Amino acid sequence: MKLQLVYFARVREQLGLDAEELQCPATLGRVDQLIDYLVAERGERWQAVLKAPNLLVAVNQEMVSVSTSLADGDEVAFFPPVTGG
């Protein structure tokens, strides 16, 4: 399965990456499984960022929960909560 991953704001800064195309196993059917896969492949820094309790996720520009299903070609975006002043 091929996914487009996009990282915004503090997530981008902490991971040092703004976007990537990821070829991953077809067994990754949900967002939480994708996060577990990325953490297992990339280590502690990724765990600290992607397992943060306030992390927001969008699939194809729609806010979703981590139990949301993924399909080939989806765009998955990770970002911190939006705040304003």
From TrEMBL:
Q: Where is the signal peptide?
A: none
Please provide the record's keywords in A-Z order: Nucleotide-binding
The GO cellular component terms are: molybdopterin adenylyltransferase complex
Q: Could you tell me what this protein is called?
A: Molybdopterin synthase sulfur carrier subunit
Q: Which GO molecular function annotations are given, in alphabetical order? A: nucleotide binding
Family per similarity comment = Belongs to the MoaD family.
Q: Native species of this protein? A: Marinobacterium aestuarii
Q: Does the keyword Nucleotide-binding apply?
A: yes
Please give the biological process terms from Gene Ontology that the record holds: Mo-molybdopterin cofactor biosynthetic process
Query: Which SUPFAM superfamilies does the record match to this protein?
Result: MoaD/ThiS
